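S., here's the first fold you wanted:
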Amino acid sequence: MALEIRRLSMLTISQVSKSFGGRTLFEDASLQVNRGDRVGLVGPNGAGKTTLFSLILGEATPDDGKVSIERSARMGFLPQESAPAGAETVLELACAVTPELAKAQQTMKTTPDDSEEHHEALRIFDEEGGWQLEPKAKRILSGLAFRESDFNREARTMSGGWVMRAHLARLLVMEPDLLLLDEPTNHLDLESLVWFQNYLREYSGAILMISHDREFLNQLVDSIVEIAHRRLNRYRGNWDKYMIEKAAREDQQLSAYKNQQKEIASLQEFADRFRAKASKASQAQSKLKQIDRMEKIEAPLSREKTVHFSFPQPQRSGSRVISLKAVDHAYGDLVVYRGLDFEAERGQRTVLVGPNGAGKSTLLKLLGGSLPLQSGAREVGYNVKVGYFSQHRMESLNAKHTVLEAVQDMPRPAGEQICRTVLGSFLFRGDDVFKPVGVLSGGEKTRLALVKLLLDPPNLLLMDEPTTHLDIGSIDALIGALKQYEGTLIFISHDVHFIRSMARTVLHISAGKLTPYAGDYDYYLDKSRATSARAGTTAGEKLQNAQPTQAATAAAPTGLGMREQRELKRAAADQRKAEAKVKRDHEKRITDLEMQIAALETQQQHLTAELEKPEIYEAGGRAVTLNRELMGVAKDLARATKEWETLSNQLPADSSL
């Protein structure tokens, strides 16, 4: 008989009801999250996703029902925006996994080394495992694209997006049993997103996340919980499976709803016809009671569809839209482009892909004219009007205008009805259109700037991450709008669904080199041999140059003489030998580092054990000396671990580097 492994419930939501301002968000809603579950929480804007998180965190209480967390379970939460940051450094914030540790860190930093308070803080820091956390925190911060020079910067001096990353690092260092994530990919660049996605695949705890990134949900979750009809409806599988099962459920529900409505109409017709007849009055009353006793089937919510509206189309441009010739661009000593040549033609829909820092956003800014040319020429074609959409450019918005006034403040204003329709598609509904622009959040301003761009589109549209801060319905509305668009589109995105929907050609950028692919995103994935759809957006030079020498030999042109063929084979063999030597040296360094790390970990454990002995603190400055030694070992261990991790990630799977 097979042994049945029972999964323990960590979070239980039981028959919960919750209302706000007369509106019922949840009614008799239930959900169970077990250890190891990966759950995506979805639903339209305003359905109650954030409220559900508040109930789980204890920040709000249900009107009825119960939310219970396993007593021993640790819970960690990453909000969508505005996590706090104080005087602590980025590394201290990442290591502050408990209030006790955070307080001990601050005391250690602000008190003399020989003071009683300092010694007590050291003891608490040691008991809470602070020394072991630092190397782990550095690895995670590096994965989230922090540089080593950032570790000792005060977190409050960094932008909001980087503060959110530091808080995300803190949660990953903490490794809570239940991880609550609210749109965790909003503040990540492409490479960090891929790293984070891979990290969560191996995460040991349960995850409950709100996300509008379909690829992220497809890669990570094993079930989708949809908020619909004030209930929590669970679907097993990832996003794609959820959409298939949801469609089937809605078909069944619609059929049942229609049948019930026919039955109700028949009963009501009988009651209306015969209630005035004395001989039939009791039967008529019985029919009405039968209607009242029915458990009413609700009509299925309309499936998420793109809102269709007609956008004004831009004037037709000339065939050659824009070109860059022999352009150089550098940020200080960092050269991004040297002798760059680029040309776009009318009607192109091109996505820019490549590793973080390769120059994708720089290319868009050069094309948009927001970066001055350091050398070379930028030529704009006949009748071309350029529009550049960046999440960080809101100059077109007047803080004193209402949302509705803002979208009508343009040379060719659209009518109020179409403005309100488009605004509704991008989450400005009802009285939201009368909000002053000045009180909008950063995400709302981004969406508003996007609406303005769509209502008066240029014929060359340059877009940098346009789907950030949009829910799935709004992303589909944007896709629908851009499919109507008759101009030229060049964009950057890490939303794979958006890329697949919009891109007809792909331009890969790496180390200042542009490689065009004359096909859609799947064509590019096939030709570049990317390992996944997400990895394709961040692939670096190894993807471009991944042709092994055998392939180069096989692809050699026919018709060569015997001598030329022998020379080609000899050169390929020499290259294979050189690659093999590089790989052997690479592997030897990894082995040396593993031995060094093992020795440092043993030394760290020995010092930690010594510091646990009470008599150490009675022997003058012995405890201070040991603590300094331990800090030195921890730094050496962090450096060795970082180098080992970097080299291990670079280790090739075959003989070609």
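And the second, which I think is the more interesting of the pair:
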Amino acid sequence: MLFQPAQQLNAEQLRAVTAPDGPALVIAAAGTGKTQTLTCRVAWLVLERQVDPRRILLLTFTNRAAREMLDRAAQLVGGGVGGMWGGTFHHAANRMLRRNAALLGYGNDYSILDEDDSLRLLKHCVTDLGLKDKKFPKPRVLNTVISLAANRGVELADTVKDHFAGHEVDIAGILKVAERYAQRKRELNAMDFDDLLVNGLRLLREHTDVTAYYQERMQHVLVDEYQDTNALQADFVDIIAARHRNLMAVGDDFQSIYSWRGAAVQNILSFPKRYPEAQIFTLEENYRSTQSILDVANQVIAGNPDQFQKTLRATRPAEVKPTLVKVTDGGHQARYIVAKVRQLLDSGAVESGEIAVLYRSHFHSMELQMELARARMDYVLMSGVRFFEQAHIKDVCTLLRLAANPADSLAFSRMVEMLPKVGPKKAQSLWRALGEHANLRDAAKRAKLLELLPKEAQPLWQAAMEGVFADDETGAVLDRPDESILRFTEHFYADYAEDTFDNARQRIEDIDELMSFAAKYADTAAFLSEMALLTNLDTEQNLHKATPAKSIRLSTIHQAKGLEWKAVFVLWLVEGMFPAVRSLEEDATLAEERRLFYVAVTRAKNYLWLSVPRMRKMRDGGLMMCAPSQFIEELDPALLQVDKAGGVVMPSTRWRGY
């Protein structure tokens, strides 16, 4: 049977698919058909080169991607890809370990711990070492730090220092827990998810006979999304492919946006140095977006140093230029998007499931979520829990709920259970001892609660209350919701979040945004009423919700990678928000922020709106003027049309200094 691709390959794709033996790097820019290219490469190897499918290893980042490629290849080959190794890096490592685990001191019947198993085991390790009652990171945070060190292939102590920079932490205790955790896994004949890759790589490095077997067997190695590989995955691939050197790595350095979880863009950038004889193929013909959208993506990403330069070309003509939206603030931005979505739907240009709103950080969507709830428009939040339903938002509002209603036992329990040695039963006994009434405006009541708390909890509670009620024994601060949240966070919750959540910094950013929202309200009661109204609107919408396919998508850009929509809005394109403030002084981080902008733009197929608010409302009620994102400033004004959000769309001529 001759190789006949299901779809016509363009010249770029065909060259990659039919590349001769040897290492090859396929730089597949956004929307250029990398899945089709990889699938056809498999079919070509089997049909034209007569390679036994059992001697092909296809590595992907999700099982879904592997299944899709194998199914497509099977259709092209006529079903003849049985026995081919296709799956994630962890899947491949697990297959090797099942045959050779004894060489590393494990039984071949080892268990694989899921996340819940790992967290439970870490919790037991903390207890075994007597660290349970101290101010100590929670199991989820420990798991994240241990995992990050493993995937980056660096010392745990260094990762701990970086992760907890600016916060006091028991580094020696964390290292002891990690050592105990490793010991317990061995005793249980168990590996967690990261161990599969760590031990798979160790197997190949330490046992040459095993290495030789797999190097000989895997005549061809193909890797998808190569730009997302971490240090361990890159080493794993290099070792397996060392014998035949028939390695085809497919990826796009422009879309490397996961350094925060261990991905190293340097793996793809250094490929030609590690494989000097490698052929490089570049896919630039884009099947997703119009040329006007691609012009924006091309111009901004060209500003990044140290990359494989490429220019996206559309396969269809430009229809309408992307729109630069000039709005006053976040509230205006939200109202504009709701109105524009209604216009799109009423015109029939798109359906609601073909619309996405993308943003750099989760808290950027807060005002839009509220506006959509008020407008009773269905939306799916792809990037997490809806704003007011998030645990940390509820946590910092417990003080305010008790201020408004001292008989709120749920708020009381939630608040005191954040303290050491206080669980649900203890919280209820404290509640009863206080007469089922916790008026925290009353200094005597606060003092009584302090006496009743376990000794481990008393210092934290005392520091929190002294901070909240500093120079204010009357409790008047509780009538100022933004100030109350600020003080509670500064004197208690920030440290609690650092020890409890693996993404504490992002959660604190959410709380900062909550303070700005709270500052608009005259008192705590009004603030809590609005929160309850919006939360209940969300709940009502969920109960009568259209199918997800008929709902607008809200997503962080990280979550949106690999997806596409006819119409895309990008929020908060101002300095300090996108790019994020912490990236402005680090060249490497800023380069990744620019790649993130590129990913956002290239999700759009037909329509793109780039929103630039003029100002942000601050916690103190004041306004902060915002500078347009440097990514917007870098664009030629001729590439965009400008909407000043007054209903008139006009060609762009100049916006610098806006």
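Why I say that: Residues 141 and 503 are 8 Å apart (CA to CA). DSSP finds 28 helices and 20 strands in the chain.

Talk tomorrow,
H.
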